[in-house]
Amino acid sequence: MTRDICVIVPTIREYECVRAYAENAREHGFDTDRLHVVLVTEDFCETDEMDAMLDEEGLSGEVFDGARRQQWYRRHGVAEYEHLVPAASHAETSFGLLYMWAGDFEYGVFIDDDTLPHEEYDFFGRHLANLAFEGEMTGVESDERWVNVLYQNADEHDLYPRGYPYAAMDETVETTPVHVGDVVASQGLWTNVPDLDAVRILMDGDLQGQAKTRLDADDYGADFVAREGQYLTVCSMNLAFRREVIPAFYQLPMDDNPWDVGRFDDIWSGVFLKRACDVLGKQIYNGAPLCEHNKAPRSTFGDLNNEVPGLELNEHVWELIDSVGPEAPRTARTAQPSEDDAGADADGFAGADADSFAGVFEAMALELADGDFEGGEYDYENGDFLTYVGEHMLEWLECLDALAAADADAADADLAPTDD
Hints:
Strand content: 15-25%
Number of domains: 2
Strand order of the largest sheet: 3-2-1-4-12-9-13-5
CATH topology of the largest domain: Spore Coat Polysaccharide Biosynthesis Protein SpsA, Chain A
Largest sheet: 8 strands, mixed
CATH architecture of the largest domain: Alpha-Beta Complex
Order of helices and strands: EHEHEHHEEHEEHEEHEEEHEHHHHHH
Mean pLDDT: 90
Number of strands: 13
Low-confidence stretches: 327-353
């Protein structure tokens, strides 16, 4: 069996969670030879011990602290794009996406180091089954166009997940059967500590960053999808996805930016991914396999300090990209048509660009990069950060192209004839 699954774990402390996921795979008969583990860490962390753990578990994998990431960028000819992945930030999961793109992996799995698998689930097997799912399942929608992934027992616990807009609360939920046939991401949900933002944690009466309300498996019912035109929070602590989404799944440049915006990397990337899925007729599966979220105590006010600069932007970013369609890149829109454009539609959009995650992501990036969000029509607090995000999104696509070109050049070099 080839190694077709890249398991990406951002970690600075609890890296031994990998042992639990490996044990879960073995207990359920899942072939661990399919797994390649990428631990994304920092220079001050126990990289030697991490390497040893992978060897002891018999797992293929690599450990990347800051210095090793720099070497990887140079080796792959993309050092100029190193700034796309902020150091010492959860958003450095984007490095795992670049690593996966440069490899031959068909599937990716994000796992946070403060989680453990539920033993009743075949963790990796269930995620792959979700990605392959075809059939009827529960479709969820609300009059606010946002789906609370904790909706099934919300009348009891009254929780909304981190990143859910405050303006979309108190929604009316409807569920109807829908046909699902092209799943590109599988979001597993979580028990124990809920994934809440700092404001909601404070409202729950907890100063240690966790929340006093806890979740268990009984808080969840049937697996579900958010219907087309609906948005949802996507948390990267327990998430599997297909390779094809990587161009539209950049984990945004949080924390290390002039506005100190943080904590929305996976939230906004999930918003962009959902919009791309709706345009392209794809789905995000939600529910099992559950994981146990064991968030360590920390200052709720520290999280609040990271979230406040982006709170207003989070209320509106989905509205800004909601009308974005499957447009071709700007160069294709302004270039003169050629004989090769015979397959373009009436608007001049090439079919390949109109039917790709990269094409839709570029259209969203341009919407942000070209916008005036601070002092203009919108005048959002820290609105210029959205322009910054859009520019980074465009560079993300450039970086992926550069990696693909380098890979093609290497393949050509391998095939080139040599003198005997």
